[in-house]
Amino acid sequence: MTSAMSQTRPPSDRDHPGVIAPPPLIYFGFLLAGWALDARLLHLQMPFELTLPVKIVAVALIVAGLGLEMWAGGLFKRAGTNVVPWSPSTALVEVGPYRFSRNPMYVGFTLVYFGLALGLESPSAVILLIPCLAVMTWGVILREERYLADRFGQPYLDYKDRVRRWL
C-alpha cells in the first residue's frame, strides 16, 4: 500500500529529518577510509584469496544492492515522495521491499559496500562497516524515524510496528 497521508502542515524547505550527511556519502566515506587504511597504513590482507567464487559473491552483492536501491527508490518516485532524506516526505511507501524492511535503500547500500570491500580486498573496510552502520542508525535512521512519526503520526507508527528497521 502506498499512502499519501500528510500532517496538518504542508511540506516546506525546512521539513526534513535533519540527517547528519547524505547516506551514500557516509557509506563511501567509511569504505574509502577502510581501503586507505589497508593500502597506506596497516597493509592488512584478507584471510582468504580473491578467488573466482569470492569475486562472484562480491559482484552478486553489488548487483543485488544496486537493484534493491533502484527498486526502492523507484517506488518512492512512483509515490511522488522525495528519495533524498533532506527533502520533505509526502507519502509513506509500504509496498515491495518496504514490506520487509523500513530501509531497503540502506540495506542496498550495505550490500554494495560489503561487495566492494570484498572486491577491494580490504579487511579494514569490512571492519569499518560496523561503525558505518552505527552512524547510519544514529545519524540518519533514528532522525528519519522521529521525523516520519511527527509527519505521518499513527499510520507511520503502525507501519513501524509491523516492519523491521533493517531486515
Question: Could you please describe the fold and organization of this structure?
Answer:
With 167 residues, the protein is an all-alpha fold. The protein contains 5 helices and 2 strands, in the order βααβααα. The protein has helices spanning 23-42, 52-79, 104-119, 123-152, 154-162, and strands at 2-3, 92-93. It has a two-stranded antiparallel ribbon. α1 (23-42) packs parallel to α3 (104-119), α1 packs antiparallel against α4 and α2 (52-79) packs antiparallel against α3 (104-119). The protein is elongated. The model is unreliable at 1-9 (pLDDT under 50).
List its traits.
single chain, 167 residues, mainly alpha, two-stranded antiparallel sheet, disordered N terminus
Blueprint (SSEs and pairs):
Elements: E1 2-3, H1 23-42, H2 52-79, E2 92-93, H3 104-119, H4 123-152, H5 154-162
Antiparallel strand pairs: 1-2
